[in-house]
Known about the structure:
The complex is a heterodimer.
Chain A lengths: L2 E4 L2 E4 L2 E15 L3 H11 L6 H4 L2 E8 L10 E8 L2 H16 L6 E4 L5 E4 L1 H4 L8 E5 L2 E8 L2 E6 L1 E18 L2 H16 L4 E2 L6 E2 L3 E3 L8 E3 L21 E9 L2 H18 L5 E5 L10 E4 H4 L2
Parallel strand pairs in A: 2-17, 6-10
Antiparallel strand pairs in A: 1-2, 3-5, 3-6, 3-11, 3-18, 4-5, 7-11, 8-9, 9-10, 11-16, 11-17, 12-16, 13-16, 14-15
Chain B lengths: L2 E6 L7 E2 L5 H4 L4 H5 L12 H4 E4 L2 E8 L5 E2 L9 E5 L14 E4 L15 E4 L19 E7 L13 E6 L15 E4 L15 E4 L11 E2 L7 H11 L13 E5 L7 E5 L4
Parallel strand pairs in B: 1-4, 2-5, 4-6, 6-7, 7-8, 8-9, 9-10, 10-11, 11-12, 12-15
Antiparallel strand pairs in B: 1-3, 13-14, 14-15
Protein name (chain A): Formylmethanofuran--tetrahydromethanopterin formyltransferase
InterPro entries (chain A): ForMFR_H4MPT_ForTrfase (IPR014053), ForMFR_H4MPT_ForTrfase_C (IPR002770), ForMFR_H4MPT_ForTrfase_fd-like (IPR023447), ForMFR_H4MPT_ForTrfase_N (IPR022667)
Subcellular location (chain A): Cytoplasm
Amino acid sequence: MQQLIRNGVVIDDTFAEAFGMRATAIIITAPTLKWARQAAITMTGFATSVIGCGCEAGIDMDLSETETPDGRPGCRVMLFAMGTDELQKQLKTRLGQCVLTSPGSACFAGLEGSAPLDLGSALRYFGDGWQISKKFGGRHYWRVPVMDGEFLCEATTGLTKQAVGGGNMLLLAADWARALKAAETAVAAIEKVPGVIMPFPGGIVRSGSKVGGKYKGMMASTNDAFAPTLKGAVKTALEPGTNAVLEIVIDGETSDAVSDAMRAGLKAVVKLGPKQGALRISAGNYGGKLGKFHYHLRELLP
Amino acid sequence: MKPLTFRLLAEPGERLDLSALVPDRLAGQPVSDIAALPVGTTRTGVKVGDLFRITGKDASSLVFDGGSRRFDQVGAGMTSGSIRVVGDVGFRAGRAMGGGTLVIEGSAGEELGSGLSGGRIEVTGNAGDRLGAPLAGELQGVSGGTIVVRGKAGHRAGEKMRRGLIAVLKGCGDHLGLGMIAGTIVVTGRVGAMPGYLMKRGSLLLDRRPDVLSPTFVDGGNADIAFSGLFDRFLIAEKILDKPLLGTAPTRICGDNAVFGKGEIMFRRRR
């Protein structure tokens, strides 16, 4: 594989391979940003990978009181799944269990999509007959009486079929602390890009996987080529001086959003340089046969 | 293209039924045909051409240059386009309208917007009694759309309303939202006696506590709700009001418990 060098950081001439997904977004508001975020964090918990969690979800951005429908602070949350039915199911259960329950919360559509997904239309029955329907300004809302007042929830939000899941970059460093520093720097830069989430813990994955494994029924197993402790034992992808690898995984509303996010992440890690952060940047792919979307690092470099 | 304009030549000698002069019906009609349309309500057989000077070509936007208290059923049944009246109108303006916009730069008589199902009516002056109300025998009043009266409204405004929005900015008479089924009525200014009387569901959103309330309404407290902020922003964005109406934690009164009892009267909390 050819390699490029920017600011002393080696970049593999490879690509990240990603998949088409279904996505939706909602806006959660509350009397304070702290409580809007709390509802959002709770709702997007256990949503790192569709394989085990049913959906991938995260906070896209915080919104000031002038940017939300009800004039309270809030944040935009995005959910990704492989199919519409699963996305609807995840949206409904997470909304009902995590947002409806959160003090002071309200919920609004966060995407004008190609088809509607139920929000309040599904949750209104919690009101046991006391729910109030309100239609104005071309939109439909439900008001559900709850113990701290009312849960206000728009009837539906939008669905997009243009979403992309699995944009990624691998950050290879001399030790764990530098790998983390590089990853945190990338996450901070990507957080500023609208329309993308990084669904893993703090935006970072430490257990990158390969397809299949030696045990029957394992769909994925550890990516031994990038595991530094196995450098001598397996066909490794790591240099002798590399002792820690972390991955950033990106889901975006559109393919362009994923490109923008990867560009921002690469730029930040390159700027950090090899002494403090990553010695080398790579990306995960399956040879290009599985995913429709390919993001070549060469084209995204600063 | 200039709007199709009807310039009033003199005060009409009788009440007129102007329901024929709506964009939907005038599209593609030659001026001679429009001038020949009968608009009188007596045996005189008065026609459009006898009363108005017609100019302009764009039938999707009509202008009545000069109005009269004898202009009845202006914009009745319209579903698209716009009508602007520079002056007053009589009763049932915008009756059974389904879409489009009707702007009256003056005052309107009784039963303005009766049976409205869509579109928008705006009156800069006052409106008479039974604003948006059903006619005798009808089961519901306004079932969609928006009515904004920038002046006062008479008694029984929003009677049997089902859906949509009515806003009255300088107060109204007695029995606001009488027998309301659902929907939203906003009133700033003094509200007469017994607002929300016999309302089943729906919202009366006011800028003050009503003076005389039916004893079948009960206190719903001052919970901090998101809806009031959302609706305040909507009213300002729509240029219906220029400042917030309810604020956070409005006072909520629930009723009418003489009937279904799921309606509400809300107004800004006075500290």
